[in-house]
Amino acid sequence: MKIALSxxxxxxxxxxxxxxxxxxxxxxxELAVLLAAATRPDVPLADLAAAVGAEPSEVRGALxxxxxxxxxxxxAEDGDDVPDSVGDPKPEKHLLSSTLPAYSTEDTARxxxxxxxxxxxxxxxxxxxxxIFSTAEVSSIVAMVDYLSxxxxxxxxxxxxxxxxxxxSVRYIExxxxxxxxxxxxxxxxxxxxYARLDAVRSVEGRVRELFGxxxxxxxxxxxxxxxxxxxxxxxxxxxxxxxxxxxxxxxGKASVSYANSVLKRxxxxxxxxxxxxxxxxxxxxGTAGKKTDKPKANSTFDTDExxxxxxxxxxxxxxxxxxxxxGDA
Length: 330
Prior knowledge:
Strand content: under 5%
Helix content: 55-70%
Oligomer: single chain
Radius of gyration: 39 Å
Number of strands: 0
Largest sheet: none
């Protein structure tokens, strides 16, 4: 079959790659919005919704899906009531509670309809947690993506770590996501670094508890800060912390966490990274002190051999003189 298009009223340019994808797997509203945007790219949202015969909420979902497919970008104008385009930076949010905004069932369904990737993310999270999510739990995952702009890898890593920690609860995952977001951890790379630091601290925490006699009690806020500084900020190993403990006990007679912190801080400022570095620095200091003590002797013209020779001559001068004179007469 051959089809001839009529361009008597002009033509509109449509990107072919996303158009082919939309024809295979897109929704009617997505395809209609793309074609309408090709003819009137500056149309208000209300007019666009009327033109394609859809509700404004459906158009918002279609725009988000088209932006995710790379078909278009858009900028919201006054009165549009439409979220920023996918890929565009969203204004930073500061959350005042550990709960994300509640998404209605309709909003959740609309967002899911516009993103196959999001549906796949929810399926993956369900497999990690080991349960089928309720509508509220699905909405929570959707809110992390839509409201916080967290990507799939971020949420998958967060879900995995919370589950491994014995907290396979979407509510707990949501609270953790909010807390991390408010701490400035917004990207997958930042989340990876956060967990790497956390793992490093935990790997030496047991040894620190043993050395300083902390037992199984919860660490105080100050102790947690010390431990994070030693391992995460200063990069010290368990061996260096043990060296600081030894120095602390030798100096004070007790295992003081605060004193050990002062020792480790000084070593950090001096660029000492290993116990061998500390030993060499101590030897150098002792050597310098020894040189200062020996300095008067080194610069003195005093000679012990000459002193004893002169003393002997003074003590036995009379006894030796006849021998000398006799030798001279001979």
